[in-house]
C-alpha cells in the first residue's frame, strides 16, 4: 500500500467519524493543510499523489473545506514567492488563502497600489494576486460573499481600491499554480463521481419494481456499466495530472464531463426520490455544475490542449 492509499483510508475514516470537523481540526489531526508545505515550514512535504488522494476523499463527501485554494494553490504560489511566514500559517490551518489568477478579474497595478474587482474568487483569508507580471499579497478593501447554487463551495467578490501590496515574486509561476488547481479539482470530481456511482448501485440493488430489483433491468445495467467506465477513465485522467499543462487540460475536460454525467445519471436512476431536497443527489449535481465553471468549461480546456498540440 502506498502512502497515498494509506492517507486516503485515514482521511475517509476521519471524515466519516467527524463529519463536522473544522479546517483547523483537519490540519491538526491529519496534516492536510500542510500536505504540500515543505517540512522546514511545518508541513509534511508530500507530493501530487498524496494531494490527489485527499482531494478525492474531500470531493466524495462534498467537503466545504478550502483544500483546493488554500492547501494546494496558495501553498504553490507562496512557495514560488518565498513567503515562508505564510507557508507556516497555512500549514497549521490557522490561516486560509486564495489565489487570483490572471484574467480572473479586471485589475491593474500602479505604483504598488492595486485597483479593480475580482467578481468570483474562492474564499480565503489571505489573498494572493497574479497581476502585471507579479505575484502580490493584498488585503481587499471589500469582500462580498455570494449566495451560491453550490453552498459547499463559497465564492466571494473582492474589491481593491488603490490597495497597497506586498510583492512576492515575478509571477511566472501562475500557470503551474493554475494547473495544480485543475489537477486537484479533477481528483475532487472523481471522488464525487465515484460516490454518485456508489449511490446509484446501492439504490439499484434495493429498489424493487415489478417484483425484482431495478438493477436487474437491462437499461439500468447499461447505465451503471457506462458510469463505471466513465468514473474509472476519469480516475486515470486525474491520476495522470501532475500539474503540467497538457495533463491538466485533459483531466480538466474529461473529469468535469464525467462528474456531470455521473451526477445526472444518479438522479435518473433514483427516479422521483432523486429530485427531492431530502435526497443528497441534487447536492452532487450542484457541485458538478459549479465545478464545470471553476477553471473554465471543458471546451476551454480542450481549446488550450489543441493550441499546444497543433501549435505551428
UniProtKB/TrEMBL annotation:
Pfam families hit by this protein: Acyl-CoA_dh_1, Acyl-CoA_dh_N
Domain Acyl-CoA dehydrogenase/oxidase C-terminal as annotated: residue spans: 184-309
Keyword annotations of the record: FAD, Flavoprotein, Oxidoreductase
Acyl-CoA dehydrogenase/oxidase N-terminal domain boundaries: 19-73
Cofactor(s) required for function per UniProt: FAD
Record SUPFAM superfamilies: Acyl-CoA dehydrogenase C-terminal domain-like, Acyl-CoA dehydrogenase NM domain-like
GO molecular function, one term: flavin adenine dinucleotide binding
Stretches assigned to coiled coil: none
Family under the similarity heading: Belongs to the acyl-CoA dehydrogenase family.
Protein name listed in UniProt: Acyl-CoA dehydrogenase
